[in-house]
Amino acid sequence: MNMLEVKGLVKRFGGLTATDHLDLDVREGEIHAIIGPNGAGKTTLMNQLSGELPPDEGAIVLNGVNVVKETVHRRARMGIARSYQITSIFLEFTALQNVMLAVQGASGASMSFWRPVMKDRQLAEPALQLLQEVGLAADAKTLASALAHGARRQLEIAMALALHPKVLLLDEPMAGMSHQESAGVVTLLRQLRGSYSIVLVEHDMDAVFALADRITVVVYGKQIACGTADEIRLNPEVRAAYLGDQMESI
Amino acid sequence: MTTSLFFAQLLNGLQLGLLLFLMSAGLTLVLGIMNFVNLAHGSLFMMGAYFAAVAYGWTDSFLLAALVAVVGTLLLGLLIERTVLSKLYSRDHLYQVLATFGLILFLNEVARAIWGQAPIFMNVPDALSGTINLFGLPYPSYRFAIIAVGLLVGLALYLVIHRTRIGMLVRAGASDSSMLAALGVNIKLINALVFGAGAALAGLAGLMAGPILSVQPGMGEPILILTLVVLVTGGIGSIRGAFYGALIVGIVDTIGRAFLPSLLRGVVDRSLAQAAGPAIASMLIYLVMAVVLAVRPDGLFPVRHG
Amino acid sequence: MADRQTSAAISPLLATLPARRRITLRWLSAAAVIAALGAVPLICALIGQPFYVTLVSRMMIFALAALGLNLILGYGGLISFGHALYIGIGAYAVGILSYHGITNGYVHLGVALGAGLGLAVLIGSVCLRVSGVGFIMITLAFAQMFYFLAISLKQYGGDDGYALESRSNFGWLDLGDNTTLYYVIYALLVLVLILFYRLVNARFGMVLRGSKSNDRRMRALGFPTLPFKLIAYVISALVCVIAGVLLANLTRFVSPSYMEWTVSGDILLMIVLGGVGTLLGPIFGAVVWLSLEAVLTSLNVGLPWGLDEFIHNHWMGVLGLFIITVTLVLKQGLYGFLVQRDQARDPVAQ
């Protein structure tokens, strides 16, 4: 069953066609990686999936419903959660407050004007649980601005999970991480596989080939191949267009 | 309402619009490129008018007064920029707004201390004190000169911005200033250039407005508010937006004030028209601004950002 | 998920929320100011200087307006340069109704709040569509629009304003007595303070604060940020309307100058002076700013070279310099500095 289907997506910026009739399908519970050379339009694709960039043509079907006309916040409520290439969290709040806010967003119940949020167990409990899941429970009371880069990215994932999403869009979650931190994220994503459908944009090829059930290769905004890790590894077009010398090391 | 009266008011609107354009062009670039809210722009206008009026009073030469006004305001602008404003480039807009607000109060008081509260008068230069004949309509030469100068400056700005390398850098900066800095362009120089040009334009506007407005402390604020309306309506950072926005604001305001009260008298009873007419006329441009923003929140000609 | 296991791990953490209050300098100074304000009329009666009751009443009115604006400024990140408009609405509701012979205070208040609500929804809806700097300019423009409207209302004094025969009649509450009016203002100030304290720490407040911190992330978390900002805008406007009603009553005068753009600037400054995004900052700021104004306009301390006279005559210029200095030097405001000290030790406490 396809949780997410992208059909004929087109996005032009003046004379440049950033997304060129792109097709993509993400099966329920799989980790689907998107790879491609820099400038291939991967983040543009992510922005169109999350709703921040309206496409010129095409459909984005989430669990059978075309969401291409929905706003960002509507899509979040419908089940699309994402992490950004440059971590986007609330630096002035603690890790716990960050995730509590995410839980509050998922609840859709914010018209409360009197009761202090810190006494709200309905927010605090799930938030702490999520922090536990990503391994940040010890840092619950630390200000997000005081967290290390890797911890901030984990926090962002926890916030995305708070939305009980159907589809998780992760835009280079391992960027800027040390080897150890990356290994931690790989373990986390393995745990999430099955419960969530994950679209993963990544440059870290080790992680991609270790995690992905399927890989789509995007070059100049177009899909040139889609298949399992082995199929992609052996695909001559992919080797030519993208992987090049990186192939030798794998 | 005769056609010649309408035509005359239309020209007046054009003249006000072009004055506003001179003010808006500088401010929109400073805002678009340096992301800096400079409320003291109206004070530069005021100082330009004062410099011109005083210089003209001393030397009786309008050309000399023009030179003093434009150069003087340019220097004053750069002084303010170096001492106060540049320290705020990286700060939140709130602090920029407050500091320039304080600057307005300070500069108004300086003007009051030096020249007093009473307006000082500047005569229209003799060469332009007559009327010229436009399609059979007599129109004050001075106001026509403002229109001519305004259009010339507009043309010059267009040529510089769209046909020179410096202009290209300015346009790029308006679209994505951090990228420009990352490419190694001397952003400080561009900033100083843009700010200086804006100050000089404000000084020019002050000079030209001298003979037709009363030169007194606080004269800059009404013009500033109109300029802000132009910026919001036309699109921040866009010279084209400043041009068309200024023309729209100038013409709508002038025509509205001239004809709305009498138009209303034809529709509703006299006493209501007498009360409501001037009130609505003064609110007209804000209503137009609100309508434009309802349809296009980024203004009529927004700059596309990278 | 192993729920029981995770629950066991997190319940000790849960138990530490919310954090216990510690008595710090911040709380002491806050309490001191509130207490001092409450004691002013008593002190004035003792020393026989009733003038100060009126002066401090005025300070509290502006503190109230600043408190209102700070909801969207400090907690929402929305820089409105046109909130004096709502002070004007409150004042003119009292003025216009009084002119037509209606002196019932409840009617004054009702009409003021109703008009304020309607206008705030309309103006807020338009202004909030404009992002960033445009918002500052458009709020300023709208305030100016109503300023000109007020000036053109010749019937109610136009530029010169209009003097009220008496203060609003609330029946059992005699606002004609300066001390009674003082305590009404004081009570409202404390009430709004308490309401806002709960508001900014409740779910609604968190949406506002999150929006200020990272609006893009808020939307990606499923929050439609616009309705929340609009509600906050309206609440802040209504607080300013109440301040306007009180101001008209205090001075027994309505004038377009109440909504001049410089007043909007003054309120912004009071907030910055005291500390943006703190609850008591605006109150500190209002007291300091208006005290400074009072001192400068009546300066008589014997400075050399006729400086007394000079400052006396050009006090606005001195205030202008003061504003510039404050914005260049002061990062968090007088009270904000104390708040930051506390937060460095314990981030969760508010």
CATH architecture verdict of chain C = Orthogonal Bundle
Number of helices of chain C: 15
Judged by helices, strands and strand pairing, the structural class of chain A is alpha/beta
Strand content of chain A: 25-35%
Distance between termini of chain A?
31 Å
Oligomer description:
heterotrimer
> Going across the major beta sheet of chain A, what is the strand order?
6-7-8-3-9-10
* Overall form of chain C: globular
Structural domain count of chain C: 1
Report the strand count of chain C.
2
Rg calculated over all Cα atoms of chain C: 22 Å
Strand elements of chain A, count: 10
Helix content of chain A: 25-40%
Mean pLDDT of chain A: 90
- Biggest interface and its residues per chain? B-C, 46 and 44 residues
Q: Give the number of domains of chain A.
A: 2
Number of helices of chain A: 10
Unreliable parts of chain A: none
Distance between the terminal alpha carbons of chain C, to the nearest Å?
33 Å
CATH fold group of chain C: ABC transporter involved in vitamin B12 uptake, BtuC
What does the model show?
The complex is a heterotrimer of chains A (250), B (306) and C (350). Chain A is α/β, with parallel strands linked by helices. Chain A folds into two domains: 1-79 and 166-250, Rossmann fold (3-Layer(aba) Sandwich); 83-164, Rossmann fold. Chain A is built from ten helices and ten strands. Chain A has a six-stranded mixed beta sheet with strand order 6-7-8-3-9-10, sandwiched between helices. A four-stranded antiparallel beta sheet of chain A has the order 2-1-4-5, with helices on one face. In chain A, a hairpin with a 2-residue loop joins strand 4 and strand 5 (65-66). In chain A, helix 3 (95-107) crosses helix 4 and helix 4 (121-134) crosses helix 5 (149-161). The longest helix of chain A has 14 residues, at 121-134. In chain B, helix 1 (3-34) packs antiparallel against helix 10 (239-267) and helix 2 (41-59) runs antiparallel to helix 3 (62-83). Chain B is mainly alpha-helical and 306 residues long. Chain B has one domain (8-118, 138-295): ABC transporter involved in vitamin B12 uptake, BtuC (Orthogonal Bundle), CATH 1.10.3470. Chain C has one domain: ABC transporter involved in vitamin B12 uptake, BtuC (Orthogonal Bundle), CATH 1.10.3470. Chain C is 72% helix and 1% strand. Chain C is built from 15 helices and two strands. Chain C has helices at 3-15, 25-47, 51-73, 84-99, 105-127, 133-152, 178-201, 203-213, 215-220, 225-251, 261-274, 281-297, 307-313, 315-329, 334-345; strands at residues 162-163, 253-254. A two-stranded antiparallel ribbon of chain C has the order 1-2. In chain C, helix 13 crosses helix 14 (315-329). The interface between B and C is large, with 46 and 44 residues.
